[in-house]
Specification:
Elements lengths: L1 E2 L8 E2 L2 E2 L4 H10 L4 E3 L15 E3 L6 E5 L4 E5 L4 H8 L4 E2 L11 H7 L6 H4 L6 E7 L5 E5 L4 H7 L8 E8 L1 E2 L4 E9 L2 H10 L5 E6 L11 E8 L7 H4 L11 E2 L11 H14 L3 E6 H5 L5 E2 L10 E9 H18 L6 E6 L12 E9 L2 H16 L3 E2 L9 H7 L3 H11 L8 H5 L3
Parallel strand pairs: 3-5, 4-5, 16-18
Antiparallel strand pairs: 1-2, 6-7, 7-11, 8-12, 9-10, 9-11, 13-15, 13-17, 14-15, 14-20, 19-21, 19-22, 20-21
């Protein structure tokens, strides 16, 4: 099959194996000489692609157990986050960490050690995993936890499928009173104000900013900051109090065809960003969890807006002390090129945990670019700025960084490689990305 990540760049012909059960997953791992696991294909680039064998795990998606006393869910790795929400929000439980789309599998979330709008308070998804089961290159199945195969556990969280194939996971959820978020919107006029608002929002559970990536000079870094808390029942209107844990209304639309490349240019993006910034209404509202966490999921196949050639997402993180200088340099370069995207996101992360996991304490910037030669060259320049400021890029978004630039960002790469050499000396688990980066 022709396969790609969410960015639809690159696209390659892969042999796909789609096991229907845990036993079939284990058999496929044992039989193949080279393979990579694939969840729901929401990583943007080439991390879930292996031309020899890509293991599509979406059918290994059973829920195994849920403990309503502790909130621990045990499920197969192919289970979708959307199904976890659909099943457990009505019972008063919410994922401890969620990315900006619910169309990801639990295995994909662990493999990328995903972070959410609460990283500064709650850490990454790996911080909430009680244990996981892993199929190793030699066919063995091992249980990993903080006190059992601890090194392998740490390497697998964020390890992008390169230590083995995750079969199942025990994940601790958080209790909620309602399916709603109390959201506050604040406007910041420039980067100083945006960063000050993040600092002032440290006590909030969730915080994230949309940043106008084409604003320049004294408006550089202007943003809308959204912060939120799970709403209590008594904060809801009377009609919502009647069913506080009701599922959000389904309001999806689909991008019906690939937009022509010309539709996305510095004028259309600039106009959108100006309107978005000016028309936002600062203040407090109660919104359902879909609106707060997954606004992009309402537009199915929104990746088609970037045309047939696809898109690349650039996500980097800069150490806190270097964030102001680094963000100024990055945003200035992007605005000068006029190449940014409609929705660019800025977030303050808390400390990370090493190995191949992306988060580190500092600011992370994420934005989309049409995958064309000019933009790919620009991203090379952004890499140089990021590495010069001690930052790194996120593997789950990457499709193109050079191996040297990548390596400079991850000081604990050697530890990861050592674990991998112990469990997979032949590098059976490999992806286009791991080969490109010589991981
Ligand atoms: C709109 C959008 C918003 C996003 N927002 C965020 C965000 O806020 N924060 C964030 O951290 N990420 C975010 N992401 C990225 C996304 O959460 C990750 O790429 C996630 O890994 C995708 O999960 P998936 O099931 O689609 O995995 P895939 O894309 O299929 O695979 C991703 C990686 O996981 C590995 N993998 C998958 N399943 C297994 C398994 N069972 N065992 C071992 N390895 C496995 C693959 O080999 C690959 O390396 C976003 C992506 C999109 C499209």
């Amino acid at each position: 099959m022709m396969l790609a990540g969410w960015g639809r760049y690159p696209r390659v012909e892969c042999r796909v194996i789609a096991p229907r059960s845990r036993d079939e997953v284990v058999a496929a791992v044992a039989e193949q000489r080279s393979l990579i696991a694939r969840g729901n294909g929401r990583a943007y680039g080439d991390s879930a692609l292996n031309t020899a064998a890509t293991l599509d795990l979406r059918r290994a998606d059973r829920f195994i157990a849920f403990d309503a006393a502790t909130g621990v869910l045990e499920a197969e790795a192919g289970a979708l986050l959307a199904d976890v929400l659909g099943c457990l929000v009505p019972r008063g439980w919410f994922p401890p960490v969620t990315p900006g789309t619910k169309f990801v599998t639990l295995g994909g979330m662990l493999a990328a050690d995903v972070h959410g709008k609460n990283h500064h308070k709650a850490g990454a998804i790996g911080d909430h995993v009680a244990s996981l089961e892993l199929a190793l290159a030699d066919g063995r199945i091992v249980r990993c936890a903080r006190d059992e195969n601890a090194e392998l556990f740490a390497a697998t969280l964020g390890g992008m499928g390169l230590t083995g194939t995750i079969l199942s996971v025990q994940l601790k959820l958080q209790p909620i009173e309602t399916a709603y978020i109390r959201q506050e919107t604040l406007r910041a006029r420039d980067l100083d104000e945006t960063m000050a608002l993040f600092e002032a929002s440290r006590d909030w559970t969730y915080s994230v900013a949309w940043i106008d990536c084409l604003a320049r000079e004294n408006e550089l870094g202007r943003a809308l900051l959204y912060r939120g808390e799970h709403a209590r029942r008594d904060e809801l209107s009377a009609d919502k109090q009647a069913a506080p844990l009701a599922a959000p209304a389904c309001r999806t639309r689909r991008v019906p065809f690939d937009l022509p490349a010309i539709a996305l240019n510095r004028w259309s993006v600039g106009a959108f960003n100006r309107l978005y910034y000016r028309h936002a209404k600062p203040g407090t509202t109660i919104v359902d969890y879909d609106r707060f966490f997954y606004p992009l999921d309402a537009i199915l196949e929104w990746n088609r807006m970037y045309g047939r050639g696809g898109l690349v997402q650039y996500q980097c993180v800069l150490p806190k002390a270097a964030s102001h200088a680094g963000l100024t340099a990055l945003l200035s370069r992007i605005a000068a090129a006029g190449a940014g995207s409609f929705l660019s996101v800025l977030k303050l992360l808390g400390p990370g945990r090493g190995m191949l996991s992306f988060p580190m304490e500092g600011y992370t910037l994420a934005l989309d670019f049409r995958a064309d030669p000019a933009n790919l060259a620009l991203l090379g320049e952004l890499d140089a700025i990021v590495t010069a400021h001690g930052g790194r890029v996120y593997l789950a978004k990457d499709a193109r960084i050079a191996a040297d630039d990548f390596r400079r960002g991850y000081a604990t790469l050697g530890e990861f490689a050592a674990v991998r050499t112990k469990v997979d000396p032949e590098r059976k688990f490999s992806s286009l990305q791991s080969r490109r980066l010589d991981l």
